Amino acid sequence: MLTNVENLIGSQFADVLTGGSGVNVLSGLGGDDTLDGGSGNDTLDGGEGADLLRGGVGNDTYVVDDAGDSVVENVSEGTDLVQAYVSYALGDNVENLTLLGSLALNGIGNALANTLTGNEAENELSGGDGNDTLYGMVGDDTLRGGAGNDTLDGGVGADAMYGGAGNDSYVVDHQGDTLFENQNEGTDSVSSSVTFVLGDNFENLTLTGSGSINGTGNEFANTITGNSADNFLSGLDGNDIISGGNGNDVLLGGAGNDTLNGGVGVDQMGGGAGNDSYTIDNVGDQVVELLNEGIDSVSSSITYTLQDNFENLTLTGSIAINGTGNGLDNTLVGNSGNNILNGLDGTDSLSGGSGNDTLWGGAGNDTLNGGAGADMMYGEIGDDSYTVDNAGDVVTELAGEGTDSVSSSITYILTDHVENLTLTGSSAINGTGNALENSIIGNSGANVIEGGGGADILNGGGGIDVLSYISSGSGVSVNLQTAVVSDGDAQGDVISNFESIWGSQFGDILIGSAVANSINGQGGDDTITTGAGNDVIVFRPNFGMDTITDFQAGAGASDVLEFDSSLFADFEAVLAAAAQVGNDTLITYDAGNVLTLKNVALTSLHQDDVRMIA
């Protein structure tokens, strides 16, 4: 009996060699031998003769030098390698094959994920099923991947490679290499260290190494990537993605909606027909589009001016850079820095990003949105639209530059020469017009809307909204029930969807509607008719000589007088200031501030009729 022996060498006759549980090297020499490695990562070399080799459990290595050699592995017994000096087909449960010697041999895989490696001669390697890796090494080899996502590398020599079904990857290093894929055999990729043109049914190409080489696509949607040198990359037809790498590259998209990124270096890019996208990162980058070649876009990390026949520009990164359009209808988008965007001519859309931006619309009906930050926006000539979301935003228009509109998510006062205002969102914010004929629309929250001078169109929108004429230079007449207004700043106005009224500092005629209203006459000698509904009539200091024509007094009555607490501290103070004069009740604060309740008996006043606020 032999103990503590790891390696066994047979004779020139038919030997039976059996390993143990360790790492064994079994060499049969001559004869038709039977070698059993047992457990462990064993090496079995039958030598001359038709040998039977069993590796057993472990990652085993077999040396095959006779066509009659037989390798046996069971399921889940490790990852095993055959080193063959003869043409060989892997049996079941063996993963890898390496051809040795200098003869022209062939290797065939099985259904597993195989790695097949050729020798220095001309080999034919066939992976069969599975995701295989095939290396031709030296020689003019033929590689066939078979089914599965295979990797084929012919190595040195003019190799013929067939990927078969699956998403296959090829390595090309010789001008004589030829690649074959049939239709509908997956998405296939080539890595090439020589100039290469994609054949039919190939999708992707990556240039490798540091040589100045070129890559050309086909009619498919190709992804083409350059190396670190100067490359010429052409996508031809299809929606291609072309990336130039580190050199001074030339990229041609061809027909289709292409994406072109020259990478580091001074690059020249032409998208051709289609809606193309470009990336600019060097002041020397040049892009070219011809007339009617689609809607084309540039993403730039440097200050940039759109060339002829380009429509869109997006600034990237966080540096304070600028973007300028052209005579077309441009879309310009800033980055997170402080940008200056200038649309020039055309109907442009300018979006500033998160910085404190300056936007110039130029001629045309432009849309300007400064984004987050305190932005300066100049629409210039045309009917321009602005978005305001920061109290520091400034909108500037000159006289005769069109009919302009602001959409605001904050309280906003229209600046000179801007006509229209729409409040957005649902917050309780306010909108104020100017001396022009304004259109002002509230949002779904509670808004205070004041048109100012001019014949305005005022719409409260949703929510409980206030129609204000507090800045009017003379008294106004407002009837919420009939939606008819006149006099002062109200002259010519058209109103809708208001529940409350703020009058002017002069004598107003204010009439409520059938719903609950809040009416504040402000200063001046006002005549107020509340109408039906649970109404609140508001009085602040210096309210004037006011008259309410239809006040409903008494416990549980619908109307309420709301006094500032600086006028009257409580209901008893109101009663002390009240007097019956004929059919009316007069409540006197001082000689210039008297409230007359028409046809109301003093005795009918109840504490429910009055409330005080600070």
Tags for this entry?
614 residues; mainly beta; 27-stranded parallel beta sheet; nine-stranded parallel beta sheet; 1 helix
Tell me what you see in this structure.
With 614 residues, the chain is an all-beta fold. Helix content is 1%, strand content 35%. It contains 1 helix and 66 strands. The strands form 7 sheets. It has a 27-stranded parallel β-sheet, with no helix packed on it. β53 (477-479) and β54 form a beta hairpin. The longest helix has 7 residues, at 571-577.
Topology:
Layout: E1 7-9, E2 16-18, E3 25-27, E4 34-36, E5 43-45, E6 52-54, E7 61-64, E8 70-72, E9 81-84, E10 88-89, E11 96-99, E12 106-108, E13 115-117, E14 124-126, E15 133-135, E16 142-144, E17 151-153, E18 160-162, E19 169-172, E20 178-180, E21 189-192, E22 196-197, E23 204-207, E24 214-216, E25 223-225, E26 232-234, E27 241-243, E28 250-252, E29 259-261, E30 268-270, E31 277-280, E32 286-288, E33 297-300, E34 304-305, E35 312-315, E36 323-324, E37 331-333, E38 340-342, E39 349-351, E40 358-360, E41 367-369, E42 376-378, E43 385-388, E44 394-396, E45 405-408, E46 412-413, E47 420-423, E48 431-432, E49 439-441, E50 448-450, E51 457-459, E52 466-468, E53 477-479, E54 484-486, E55 494-496, E56 500-502, E57 509-511, E58 518-520, E59 527-529, E60 536-539, E61 545-548, E62 560-564, H1 571-577, E63 578-581, E64 584-590, E65 593-597, E66 610-613
Parallel strand pairs: 1-3, 2-4, 3-5, 4-6, 5-7, 6-8, 7-9, 9-11, 10-12, 11-13, 12-14, 13-15, 14-16, 15-17, 16-18, 17-19, 18-20, 19-21, 21-23, 22-24, 23-25, 24-26, 25-27, 26-28, 27-29, 28-30, 29-31, 30-32, 31-33, 33-35, 34-36, 35-37, 36-38, 37-39, 38-40, 39-41, 40-42, 41-43, 42-44, 43-45, ...
Antiparallel strand pairs: 53-54, 63-64, 64-65
